[in-house]
Every structure is written in structure tokens, then in C-alpha cells.
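Incident review: delayed structure delivery

Summary: a single-chain prediction request sat in the queue longer than the usual turnaround. Root cause was a stuck worker, restarted by the on-call engineer. No data loss occurred. The affected request and its eventual output are reproduced below so the record is complete for anyone auditing the incident later.

Affected input:
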Amino acid sequence: MTTKQKLNHTAYMQFERAQWSALRNNVALTLSEQDLEQLQGINESLSLDEVVDIYLPLSRLLNLYVETQQYRHTVRDKFLNSSNDQAPYIIGIAGSVAVGKSTTARILQALLSRWPQHPKVALVTTDGFLRPNQELVARNLMHKKGFPESFDIKALVNFVAALKSGKESVTAPIYSHLTYDILPDKKLAVEKPDIVILEGLNVLQTAINYPKHPHRVFVSDFVDFSIFVDADTDLLKRWYIQRFLKFREGAFTDPNAYFHSYSKMSESEAIEIAGKIWDEINGLNLQENIRPTRDRANLILKKATSHQVSSVKLRK
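Output delivered after worker restart:
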């Protein structure tokens, strides 16, 4: 056994689904079936059981962490005999394309916002910090969209640093999956939240992923608790193709959609092109830049078939 294997073996406590579910500790479910319909992703059928077994215990854990940080701030202010701006608690959610990061983020936002101690929970995706298509074309990076070099990492770090400084209002760019580009005339305003959920491919990446970045401060340096949503590669590819087919029948039919031409393909052609996109872009990015950050996370949600979480690992 190598040193790395020993580290990975001892760094986490592992819980099977039933063990993790028991840690809910009778926390009441505050979401209805209708709430779930609005929260689930394009290719996920999320049940109330999944929320009860996996996300309620997780929201309870996160609530305890947030309470602890808020208490530390109170102690600090008492020691300094002053009142400082409260910085939000930042939760980072990383993982592959098609793994369900967005759904996880939306569920946690809904659950955490219902805890009385911190009702204001903001959700920000790092997609907004992708470079505009015009710039990606100029840099010959359109085929690398989602890779570290396709992001404006300086702007992303400045955004998270501003949040952590306690700034009253911070704005982030907005990315459109319909036009496959940044919306030039729209911004997301984040105003004094108690918690910020930061979801994206790159929230756990470091200098290894950005060798040309002149600074040595990264998003992960500002994250208080990190979650990696994981699944086997063959499942991820299958989910990506299934999602692509649903987009082909839905969003891609919009004439304004960047991938409108794909809506006119036959199903077999669409499956072939989706598989190629996965193999050449998303699967490669997963292998080179995303999965290597998994063991930096505080918690790992491992998914099995049907997007159900089969086990949870919590860093000791």
C-alpha cells in the first residue's frame, strides 16, 4: 500500500446510506413533493426519501458548522471589543459535469434557508466566470470550455475574497446554458448572505490546475466546507448522454439555442455526438482536473444508479 493509499484510507470516516440517514436526528423535512419538482435537475428524479436519508443529515451537519463559526466570530468581537462585518460561511460543491452538482446545491440552499439561525442563503455557480465565447475563440479555447484555462480565475478569486471581506453587495456574471455564453447585460447581486453555496467544476482546484496564474490564492482558500459529488465514470458518461438527449428534445429546439442544430439530429446521431463530446472534453477534464481534487473535499457523496447516493465520506 502506497503512502497516498494510506492517507486516503485514514482521512475519511465512511458511512453507508442507512448509517448516514440515522444521523438526521429527527430533523423535520421542510420540503414538499412540489418543492422537489422545482429543484431537481434535467435528468434526475429525486425522491423525498433521498432528501430525508442524505440531505437532511447533511443540512444538520452544515448548520452545526455554521453555528460554530458564528460563535467564533462573537468570541473574536468580544476579545477585540469591537463589531466587525460578518463574513458569510462558504460551502463549495464540486464534481463532474452531469453528476448533479446543481441539484445538490439547490436542495441544500432550500434546506439551509429554513434553519432559523441563517435564513439568507445565496447560490452562485462558477460558470459565470467562464471567459466569454469571443475571448475563448481568440485564445483558441472553445474546445477547452470548462477546463481551468477557460475561466477568469482572477475575477472569481476577487469575487469570493470580496464576499469573505464582508462587503455589503458583490456581483457575479451570469452564464446562459441556452446561448452557451456569458450574458453581457446581466449580473447576479449577492447582498449580505449568511451562507453562500458556490457550485462548479473548479471550486477545489489549486495552483496545480492553474500553473500560469500569477497569484497563489485560489477559490478553495476561501471555502469553509467543501463537498465533492462523485460517481463512476461510466455512469457519468451515461447520464451526460441522457441529459444531452433531453436537451435535444427541449432547450435545443429553441432557435436561439447555441446547440439548436443538434435538435435536428436523429437520436443515434445525437448519442454519437454526445459520446464524442464526453470523451474529448468532459471526460478528459474530469480525469485531468476535477477528480484529482476529490480528496481535498470535507465530504464526498458517492452516487450509484438513478443518481441515488450510496455512501458518504466525511473527513476526520
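Verification: The first helix runs from residue 3 to 11.
Action items: add queue-age alerting; document worker restart procedure.
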